[in-house]
Amino acid sequence: MHTLIVGAGSAGCVIAARLSESGNHEVTLVESGPDYPSPQDTPEDLRDGRKNSMDAHDWRYRYRPTSQRKVTFAFPRGKVVGGSSAVNTCIALRGHPYDYDEWAARGLGEWSFAKCLPAFKRLERDLDFTNEWHGASGPIPIRRHPHGELVTWQAAFVEAAKRAGYPPTVDHNNPELPCGVGPHAMNKVGGERMSAARCYLTPAVRRRPNLHVRAQTLVRRIVFLDKRFSAIEVERDGVVETITADRLVLAAGAIGTPGILLRSGIGPRAELARLGVDRIVDSPSVARRMIDHPGAAILLAPRRPFTDYEQPVLQTMARATSIGSDHPFDLQLQPGSWLPIFGLDLPIVALMTNIGKPDGSGTLHFESADPHARPIIDARLLDHPRDVARVIDGLERLFELARQPELAELAYPIYPGRRTLSKRALLQEFLPKVTGSGYHPCGTVPMSATDIEEGAVDEGGRVRGVRGVVVGDASIMPTIPSANTNLASIMIGERVGEWLRDGMDL
Ligand SMILES: Cc1cc2nc3c(=O)[nH]c(=O)nc-3n(C[C@H](O)[C@H](O)[C@H](O)COP(=O)(O)OP(=O)(O)OC[C@H]3O[C@@H](n4cnc5c(N)ncnc54)[C@H](O)[C@@H]3O)c2cc1C
Hints:
Layout: E1 2-6, H1 10-19, E2 26-30, H2 44-47, E3 62-64, E4 73-74, H3 97-105, H4 113-123, E5 124-126, E6 140-144, H5 152-163, E7 181-183, E8 185-186, E9 188-189, E10 192-193, H6 196-200, H7 203-206, E11 211-214, E12 218-225, E13 228-236, E14 239-244, E15 247-250, H8 253-263, E16 266-267, H9 269-275, E17 281-282, E18 294-302, E19 316-320, E20 331-336, E21 349-355, E22 363-365, E23 376-378, H10 385-402, H11 405-408, E24 411-415, H12 418-422, H13 424-434, E25 435-437, E26 469-471, H14 486-501
Parallel strand pairs: 1-2, 1-15, 2-11, 3-23, 5-6, 15-26, 16-17
Antiparallel strand pairs: 3-4, 6-8, 7-19, 9-10, 12-13, 13-14, 18-21, 18-24, 18-25, 19-20, 20-21, 22-23
Bound molecules: flavin-adenine dinucleotide.
């Protein structure tokens, strides 16, 4: 059985590794970006887990954060074997049990937290904790910066949050512990990023005779024969060819996967007609909406030099329940040790908030069926009034933290300034200027238990209306988890990979 996997990102690397564990499967992993098979060959921007890689291995998407803004900003997505896991901030959070129980409550019982927990444990090798919530022998090492490693701004944040009433916690991935302030769980060891590529596509896995990695190969579209998967059309160095296989896994991420489906004739009828693509399946939910975490920040000027660009950007976090939320501890508050502002070398620090369970969603619009065209991404992060209230709440909490002596003696708010932060009406007016994406797009090819109107894929990720195609990446999330989405994407890869390896019917 030959399986093609499109996209070697957080989920795709995992699916390739799990599926090729069984000699019954021939696996070809196709990736648009380059491949660096060993850490020694890997460029510094991908290895250095202290900061993001936003440029060298990127798709160069742009997005409009809020409807109030005219300008667009960079919307980074990793274009390399490892995908966005190879460029990200290395925060390794699972979210809360309610994130997955919410999926189960929609009829997707396979995705309850209890059912996902074994995969969360299987993917990790927790270097700090050995207990029922953690795995000890998985591919991804996860650790937390101990107190002695915290840089000045991060250590002060922890003390300020404790003073402000946030209880200390040692492990944000243990649902039995109090939610409060403590070190981030991170997939970063010795400052190096532990991407899905590095941890799952190890030299031993790559030596498997049944696993083939085809990098620098752009997937243009899927070819169907009588609504059954037949081949993919790919492009490498300007040469177009087809690759045939028995079945296909799409793991091209929340922007890439819906694009491939639309170009292949699977999407809303009117969209396919507009794009001039022959319709295979009228699938209304493809690219109907894009969910993301709204984020906002206060920038602060240091009173004396205490930070530099060699420091890790993030090490700690506090969690709180946002105003009127049904989801406890949905709000993240975290200090940024430095911030690149407009490419200038300014020694600015930040306090940042992320809204874990937004009510609003954005849109993803493909203007043409050209596989090289970039979609128009309108995140609409402040379209929903409840999200506006949550972002204001987050910023007010950050301002409260900034006023605690531990942080106040180090830096003072400059953007927004104190006056704006003190008056809610002014702050609300200012919001569009400081609100942006958490870089966690998902839900663009959602799963549903019921029908194609609700979800393009079923509980197993199988694409409705055709045979032989499954989606296994952040696209299928029916709602957004309250935490950063890398571990959830890897967990999806673990589960889809396991199901395919063990004979899921397509
Ligand atoms: C800058 C940044 C920082 C982030 N920080 C964190 C963090 O600290 N913690 C966290 O939990 N999450 C973080 N995230 C989010 C997290 O990394 C993603 O949610 C996760 O990687 C998504 O996994 P995925 O498999 O769905 O997609 P991806 O990992 O993006 O993989 C998709 C892959 O498909 C390939 N591809 C796409 N289209 C095609 C095509 N047509 N042909 C061939 N290949 C294609 C891409 O090149 C890519 O390799 C961050 C993301 C970014 C961009």
